[in-house]
Structures are given as structure tokens and as C-alpha cells.
Amino acid sequence: MPEDLYRVVANDEEQYSIWPAGRTIPDGWRETGFSGEKQECLDHIDQVWMDMRPRSLREAMGG
Question: Tens of pLDDT along 21-36?
């Protein structure tokens, strides 16, 4: 069912979230190219989001 599909989205701080596939992505977020059922999307985020600190904090800390 379409209401069970989600897209993985990211913001400029390289933070990830999921968003229902049928809804417009909010300003400040972009598609990452991965979509699927909720758990598939959450599993994908677990695999790709290695450092949960916002990008600006990582850069400020030199990493």
C-alpha cells in the first residue's frame, strides 16, 4: 500500500529521517534516493548514518 512506503531524507546538517512517500518533503530536507517500507528505511539509516553529530559540529571539532 502506498501509505506504507517511506523515503529516506536528509538535511543540510546530514541528519537523516523518513518521510511518507505520498507527502511533500519539507523545506530544508532532500531525498537520498532510498525508499521502502518503514523498517527498511530505518535499517538503511542505521547503515549509513555513522556519526549522529550535525555536520556543523563535526566540522567545528575538526572531524
Answer: 999 999 999 999 999 9
**Residue 10 backbone class (left: φ over 0; alpha: ψ -120 to 50; beta: rest):** beta
Residue 60 lies in a domain: no
Nearest C-alpha neighbor of 35 from the set 21, 15, 50: 21
Looking at the chain, the whole-number percentage of residues with pLDDT higher than 90 is 67
d(CA 19, CA 38): 9
Residue 21 covered by a domain: yes
**Global pTM?**
0.80
Domain assignment present for residue 41? The answer is yes
Number of domains in the chain: 1
